[in-house]
Write a structure and sequence with these properties.
By secondary structure, the protein is α/β, with parallel strands linked by helices. It is 33% helix and 17% strand. The chain has one domain: P-loop containing nucleotide triphosphate hydrolases (Rossmann fold, 3-Layer(aba) Sandwich), CATH 3.40.50. The protein has helices spanning 4-9, 28-37, 76-83, 129-139, 158-170, 186-203, 222-232, 238-241; strands at residues 46-52, 65-70, 104-109, 113-117, 143-151, 174-179, 212-213. Strands 1-3-4-2-5-6-7 form a 7-stranded mixed sheet, with helices on both faces. It is globular. It comes from Formicarius rufipectus.
Length: 242
């Protein structure tokens, strides 16, 4: 549940290099500390702030920020709802219709960081998707990490390669997250993990080498992803995260 890559590691051929499986591997105490940021209480509110279609509508860049992007129907809003499951009063709309998210949706996590749900690209993307997202990525100075979601069943698609090229061109740090791992067989998941890791190694400069595997249904990997969000926003020191 906490470390899905460790579960997969047992099925690799002996001698396979698994260094990239363990780059971010915090202890349970650090993960519990990170979880506290995602649990609302009287002195720590987690709120939907606003939505925007243009940068001049975005809230002020006062806090460290992370954004989540991915193809329509990759499970982006479902994952964000899972991340905020400890604060059930936060409304993250999840639709059965791909491409439901048409705006940039900003969520403020206390006084610590902001999380942004971006419109999906590809099928049913908003007409002004490129203009909206490129402006955000290039202009948002408080953006600490972009989380690029990839469907764990189908792996990297042509539109995902385009997103990677955009992030690389802008020189932004990002990380890949494999969603829907509960729907993929073990063999298929291993194939996709190893293939994407090789792609990242050979073709990227700004991508964090470790993949994050998640299931919004079974909550696999959600705890670890919360920890990484806390870490990259400066709220979980590196000494606790390694």
């Amino acid at each position: 549940i906490v470390f899905p890559l460790q579960k997969l590691e047992r099925f690799l051929v002996a001698g396979t290099d698994t260094t990239r499986f363990h780059l971010f591997e915090p202890g349970l105490a650090a993960l519990q500390r990170a979880e506290a940021f995602f649990r609302s209480d009287q002195g720590h509110a987690i709120d939907y702030v606003s939505s925007a279609v243009r940068m001049d509508h975005a809230p002020p860049p006062a806090l460290p920020e992370v954004c989540f992007i991915g193809r329509s129907n990759v499970g982006k809003s479902s994952l964000i709802r899972a991340l905020f499951s400890l604060a059930p009063e936060v409304e993250v709309r999840v639709s059965k219709t791909p491409g439901h998210t048409k705006k940039m949706n900003f969520f403020k996590v206390g006084k610590y960081f902001t999380l942004v749900d971006m419109p999906g690209y590809g099928y049913r993307a908003p007409q002004d998707f490129v203009e909206m997202v490129e402006a955000y990525l290039q202009e948002r100075r408080n953006l600490k990490r972009t989380f690029l979601l990839v469907d764990g069943v189908v792996g990297l698609q042509k539109t995902d390669h385009t997103a990677v090229e955009m992030l690389e061109e802008f020189g932004l740090p990002y990380v890949m997250v494999l969603t829907k791992i509960d729907r993929a067989s073990r063999g298929l998941l291993l194939k996709n993990v190893l293939g994407i890791q090789e792609f990242v190694k050979e073709n990227t400069q700004g991508c964090f080498p470790q993949l994050f595997l998640v299931s919004s249904v079974e909550f696999s990997g959600v705890h670890l992803l919360r920890g990484f969000v806390a870490h990259v926003t400066g709220n979980l020191p590196a000494v606790e995260a390694s």
